[in-house]
Structure formats: structure tokens, C-alpha cells
Amino acid sequence: MLKRKKAQGIRIMLATTLAVTLMSSAKVCVHAEEAIIVNPTCNPATREELREMVEKATEEFYQNNDLKQELENEIQVYEEVIPTSRYDSDVTRYRTITHGGKSMKYITRIIGEPAANGKYPLYILLHGGGGTEPQYNNDSWFDVILGCPDAVDSGIFIACRGITDTWDMHFQEDSYPLYDRLIEHLIVNLKADPDRVYLYGYSAGGDGVYQITPRLADRFAAVNMSSGHPNNVSLLNVSNCYFNQQAGVRDYYSEDAMRSINVSRYGKILSDYQEKYGFGYEHRTFIHVPDGHLFYDYDDTPVSVLKEPEQFADRAVAEDALSLFLDVLENRGMERDVVSLSYYFPEDDKEFDDGIRDVVTNTLGLATEEANTNAFHYLSSYTRKSAPEKLVWDLSTRASKREKDSFYWLEAAPSVNKGIITASYDAATNTITVNPDKNVNGDFAILFHPDLIDVTRLVTIKTPEVTREVVVNPSAEFLKTSIYECGDPGLGCVGKIMYSELNSGNVPSGTSDIRHTHKFTWETIEATEDTDGELRYQCEICGEIQTRVPLTAYNVFNKNATEKIRNAKKDATVKIETRRWISFHKMVMEALAERPDVTLEISFLDEGHKGKRCTVVIPKGTDTVAHVDKNGFTGFLYLGSKFGIRTD
Questions:
Q1: Which residues of the chain have pLDDT under 70?
Q2: Residue 296 half-sphere exposure, CB side, CA atoms within 13 Å?
Q3: The pLDDT value given to residue 609
Q4: Which of 2, 143, 329, 440 has its CB 3.0 to 4.6 Å from that of 66, i.e. a possible disulfide?
Q5: Strand, coil or helix: 347
Q6: What is the distance between the alpha carbons of residues 174 and 162, in angstroms, rounded to a whole number?
Q7: What is the three-class DSSP state of 224?
Q8: Closest by alpha carbon to 493, among 458, 452, 465?
Q9: What are the helix (H) ranges across 148-286?
Q10: Do 494 and 475 form a contact (C-beta atoms < 8 A)?
Q11: pLDDT above 90 as % of the chain
């Protein structure tokens, strides 16, 4: 991976710098009056110099052709019939992103013109369904892309297909790095604005919003959850991400799920967080009356909602609203069934609707009002806070396979997965205050974001144990590496300091780790054609991994095929056999074009890991480059349509 290899070289340089920093810090810890110097081999910078450093690093990121190509190489375009139960059998154009050996399908729609900065807002859409056959989940996939884009005038809309057909299809552990990587691709190659990335989910997609947002909160400006279930997730991490949630008042789904009641409760939870922490947790809750699971959340027409939605949960439980709603259903000649209550969508059943309204307003005593619940208009009004002055990080709510370890301007290895860190910055005194609770189970870093701290002054860092002064010499190399690791210029930082370094080598009190000075070295786990590898910056003593850089199996497969062709004897037939891959990168076709005397025989499974064994033979002398698509790939089934295909 070209981007990661380049970053590896930068990190090796930084390892030396960090070692010098640690030795320097060890000396100043003895003398409390001396400041710790971050990046001691770098020069201090003025505000103007820092601004130029950031602008240069950002421009280099966007103009890096190797990065653009690397990201493009992970995208494949397909045009084929998607099996559905409700849509015509037309050919659909969709894409897949493959990263870390896992793939996710998505459909793209771009509407309108970019904003004044030349970038588009990005809307990631998660469909409903789950726990059913693929064709029914595909119906829901099509539903979400066909309706939602009409809600705004401009934007990139990406409808992600769940990577499984299970109820939790949008938040499998393998999903999170795919979301990160997809957003990076759209930022670099499609002009998506990293500060205007929005997440929308309906039903099972709403479940996804609840789970994804706290784990990837630093990616999003705002999110909307409609008709989903929180599944007891913690939302502590959304303090700087606007959270909009909606449900129909009679949407219970089951007596255990109680969607509408849980949406009401989670609105109250977010309000309680606001009061407890004294900032953030901006949110809005809509409980639609008299609706169930189905309602319109992408239309400007005002609809009836509860005036005080956070009161609904307590009132509904106290008055057994479910039984009362089922009475209304039964009175209309239908069975007393919770699922039917939730999904009944009357076109013109005024008596049923009036019965539900009567329960809400007269029995529960809750007032309603008219409101515009168009999720997309509200989302689009928010811009991400990439360097917020206050943070709450619940370390137990992390994506274990995410390839970046930072959360805004804090950072911790994946093994640090317990406890809560609160952090804040005061601009007047240039002071960072960090407070890990007693459950935090390992060391972590404070990152110095160029939009947050003033590098021209001493930075004061306060912890429960000590107060230290820090000189931050901005590092251009650290900034570059930080941007590449995050895949996002807005999250790039110019240096960092470990919490233990501030506290004379002591890690947070909740840790069970043996206290020691880390000895980090680079270790390479080589990739094969079937297994992804990894480059790790790992402590030799405790095994903590500070940095992970994936090495892809697909890249190895294409390189090996290329070498076989280039090294083949004259007039040879080169045989490529795979159980996993169904396409070549253009490098293989270019190598074959350079060897017009070589015949290529490809043996593969027509559905990747499964399916029938197929063989395609490309005769020598073929103009193979002509069969490469505009994205730089050639599918084996496509080649079979041109040269014939044999099945075993």
C-alpha cells in the first residue's frame, strides 16, 4: 500500500524523534520547574508558520496521486441485476469497496453543485431490513437511495449495503474500517467535505446509527436515527456530534424492543449528559403521532409529534400504553399483535389514527405539536467540530478493528478499552485538563491539534496528580503521518505526549498493566495471496501495539500474477489459480501487454470464496489493456464473456 509505505518511513523517522523526546522528558521530570519539550528536534513555530505547515500538509494529502490510486484500487464498479422482491429486474450500477479482506457494496448518487469551497456534503445512508433473505434486504437498500436524495439540493449520497443479512448487518466489527476507508476515498477522490459528513439510518439502519456514531463520532458532523433500537449502547462519545432521533409512537416491534419508548429514554439520557458534563450532547427527539414504524422523515411538510418526547417513556410504562394501543387495533377488527401494531400503515383509516391520538393526548396526557422533521435539512446545517474544546471518551465503546487509535485529540491503543476520559481546553490560559477515571486500563496520549492549542505559548496540562508545562514544537512529519493515519486533514495533529510522561511514568490508576517504559519496534506480518498482513509498531515488553498498517492480500495476488507473467519463458502459458479473487488490477493486464507471446489461463470461483470453478484463457497477442475498466480493474467474468468460459 503506497500510502502506508510512505507513512511507514515517516514513522521510522518519528520513532527516533520520540525516543529523544522520552529521554529529554525523563530529565525534566526531575526538575519540576522545567517544561517538557514535545518534538525537541523541531523548531518552534509562529502562528503563520503553523498555518503554512497545515496548508502544505493538507494540499499534499489531496494531491497525492499514489494515495488517490491506492484508494481507487479498492473500489470496483459493477453493472448487474440485483435480486429484489419489489423492484423490476433492471441492471443496477453499484460499487464495492474492499479493504482488509472485507467488502461492502454501495450505490452512489451525486446531486446539485458543490459548495463555495468546491466540496460536497456527504450523506451516508443505512437501509432497513436485516434477519431475512438477501432480496428483501436489497429492497430496503434500493428504498433508501431512491427516496432520501430528493430531500436536499446538493450532496453525495452513499447507500451502503449491510455486509451481512443479519439484524446487525451495519455494525459488524468488519464494517467500521470499511466506513473509515470509504469516507477517505470520497474525501480524496469525489470532493466530499470531511467537515460535512452525515449519517442517516432507518430501522436496521437506525440500529446502525446508534452503534456506529459513538465509535466513529469524530467522523461525523451530525447523524439521524429513525425507527431503530439502541441495544443498550453508550452515547457518551457523541458529545460533539449532533444527534437527531425519531420514532413512531406505536412502534414497539416487540414487548422487549419497545422502540418508541427507548427513543424517548435515550433523549432523556442525552439531556442528562448535557446537565452532568455542562456542554455538548446537542440532540433532538421526535415521537411521531399517530405513526408506527413507517413515517416520512425526509419531507418538509409539518407533521404531528410529541411536544415533550422525553416524557413519553415514563408515561407509556405507567399507563401501559401498549395495551391501550392494542385495544385500538383490536377495535378496528385486527388481531392484538405487537408487530402488526408497529407496521400497520393505513392509507385512510381515520378512526384508527384518532384512537391512537386519543390514547396519547387524553390517557397519557401528552400534548402534540406540528414540526418539520426533515432529517436532511437539519443535518446539513451542522459542521463538524474536528478540534472540540471539550471531550468525553468512553473507552469501552470503541471499534476494535478500526485502524486509527485516536478520538479527536486523544489517542489510546485498542487494548485500552475500559473507563472514561474527560478532557478540556481553555484558550485564555492555553491549558489542557485531562481526567481519566479509575477504570481506565492503560496509557493514552494527548494530541496537539493545530486548531486548538497556541504553539507560541507554553501549554499547561493538568491531571489529577500533577500540573506540567509543555513546549510544543510543531512537527511537519508528525502532522503528515497523523493526517495519513486518520485519512482526514481535519484530524491531523502536530505532536503528542503520553499521559504517563506527564505523571513521571505512571499510567492511569485503573490499569492492571505492569508499569514500564515502552520499547516500540516495527514488526511486519507478511501478507499472502489469501491472508492480509500488517505492519505493527509494537512494544517488545508488553506487546502493546501503538500503530497498525494493513498490508492487503489483493495487492500480493496482483503482484505475484504480474511477476509470473514478466518472468515467464517465451511462448509460455501462465496459469493463475485463486479461490478468493474475481478480478485483476490493471497492473496484470499491462504486464500481459508487455509479453504478447504469453497465454494467460485464469482459474477462479465465480462467487469469490464459493461458487463453481471457472477457467478463462486469454490468447497470446491480445490487446489486454483495452479490457481494463475506467477504474483500473478487469473482472474475470467479464473476460469470460469476451474469450469464453469453461466451468468444472
A1: 1-33, 505-507, 509-518, 540-543, 546, 607-611
A2: 13
A3: 52
A4: 2
A5: coil
A6: 11
A7: strand
A8: 452
A9: 175-189, 204-215, 259-277
A10: yes
A11: 76
